[in-house]
Amino acid sequence: MNTRTLRFLSRSLLLYHTTHRSFTTTAIKMSAPSLPHQIISSLRSLHQPLPLATAESCTGGLIANELTDIPGSSEVFRIGVVAYSEEAKEGVLGVARETIREKGVVSEEVAVEMAKGARLQALKTLSDSTPNLAYGISTTGELGLGSQQDTAWLAIVGPEESRIRTKLLKGDQIRWDRKTNKLVTAYEALELLREQIEGWKKDSD
Asked: Are 148 and 176 in contact (CB under 8 A)?
């Protein structure tokens, strides 16, 4: 997220935790109301709209939910997978068992393999005449541990498989309750995706 968004979000969360008032997802969505819309619009505006798929663990489908709230998202959003268990990450997304064993389920390597698996699912929905380009986005982490122990890895792969971007969230970035941390993580992943799309568009001009 940009500095303005993070500042707004931090103030909102601080108010909640100091007053113990009921906090809803509205504050976070108000901080970046156009982010999902920007992503869908960017993907649709290309000469050949690029498909997108999500592979979520710790965010539990929130990214897919935010994107599909946007009218016209069906033109680019193809599939959303909530792979919560290690078995689902392996069986559905193709994450290697060795990667989980050696790096841990909450790791950059697992996040990247999840995003690659999501991208592959998106590519499977395309016709043979369509360019082999698509985006995969993933999240894996532990949210709700408390005491600033929460950790999340985000990954974006696409539109080519070699174009990869990752981000680690921890400490003060996700220091809230479980529900709030999930939403913060989802929006951080969306911002990472937006940056990836804009970067590719600039490189392609």
From this structure: no
Distance of CA 145 to the CA centre of its chain: 20
Q: pLDDT tens across 154-171, in order?
A: 999 999 999 999 999 998
Contact in structure between 134 and 51 (CB atoms under 8 Å)? yes
pTM: 0.85
| Rounded-to-integer distance, Cα 156 and Cα 20, Å | 35
Single out the residue of 4, 2, 9, 7 nearest to residue 184, CA to CA: 9
In order of 48, 54, 101, 129, 152, the CA distances from 189 in angstroms are 24, 10, 25, 30, 10
Amino acid at 149: Q
Q: Has domain 49-204 been given CATH number 3.90.950.20?
A: yes
Domain boundaries, the chain: 49-204
Q: Which structure tokens are listed for 32?
A: 């970046």
Q: What are phi and psi of 15, to 5 degrees?
A: -60, -45
Half-sphere exposure of 20 (CA within 13 A, CB side): 0
Q: What are phi and psi of 83, to 5 degrees?
A: -105, 90
Q: What percent of the residues of the chain are helix, what percent strand, and what percent coil, each to the nearest 5?
A: 50, 15, 35
